[in-house]
Amino acid sequence: MRQDLPAAPIQEATVTAISNGARSPVDFSERPMLVFWETTRACPLACRHCRASAQPRALPGELGPAEGYRLIDQVAGFGRPHPILVLTGGDCLLRPDLFGLIGHAQSAAIPVALSPSVSPLLDRRMIGRIAASGVKAVSVSLDGASPGTHDRVRGIPGHFGSTVQAIRALVDAGLPVQVNTTVMGANAGELARIAALLEHLSVHAWEVFFLVQTGRGSAEGAVTPAEHDDICHFLYDASQYGFVVRTVEAPFFRRVVAARRAGGAPPQRPLYTALSGELAKLLGTGARRPRAHTAATRDGKGIIFIGHNGDVFPAGFLPLALGNVRHQPLARIYRENPLLTAIRAARFGGRCGYCPYADLCGGSRARAYAATSDPLAEDPACPFEPDQAAPRS
Is the pLDDT reported for residue 215 higher than 70? Predict the structure, then answer.
């Protein structure tokens, strides 16, 4: 249902180094850092912004158990350091063979993270089983600071309370927990209160998704480019309260982080000042070292997505099929596909093509495609106006 990323303890040395601004040891032209597998589209929820437009039952053509094992073997085929395998959906808990898949991945020394839906399946017994399975992290979604907002997005009354309860139970079970929040017009003003709730719940990471107009998400209101920039500056502030902050489909967050680390001032626009001021009132002044994740990944660079039927995509929000793992090795698709090689080489059009942050950021390829039908076009959500004469980084 979502492209949910795992929390930082997976491949601890690698991700911690990246989070602190050091160079990653992973060559993204050879292997991704993250492989997402949409294990099923079956899901009990009907979220308004769902990329997958998830269904109540599994769709025909879903990879079966034996094919799942072979896919995991293909992930191992990238070599070491192995990518992190994120089992998502739909609701991955609806795969009857889920724990067999986890065990097979672990036998190949592949780190695994889960992205389940919060449903009656995610009870204390299931959480105990997940904790005992050896998975490295679990991510769940929280899209509002109150039941009114979150329940509307998720389409189930009472889901906010169930989600908070699930987060507490996962943390109590000793699992690193990542909370995923999709930013849209309906909840942008609640981000400070969400951050305060996450600090109270002792989550490890906050992954903030910037909406791409695709699937059910096309019905939700996107924020403006200036508001995107305000939110990124706010997220840098939020990263000073003990949890890792990352973004999805907002790689321009790294430009903001670079500017703030260099001593740049945040904007004094209404959304930023309101969010930052509310966060300070709720949690005090952020006193810890900022934990803003700045790995130079993007759709198709360090990230690859496998659909329920084996189709391979640059990312979960970029619906351009590159091949199918039933017919081609995943490593060959990732390393040789012309679109992916162009993305990794930052061969972009428009502002992204001459931006000095082209490699560090590179813009959302999914949003560029949604807006123009060209995955190499500029990202319309970024307000930055680069100097065409400036050198690229």
Answer: no
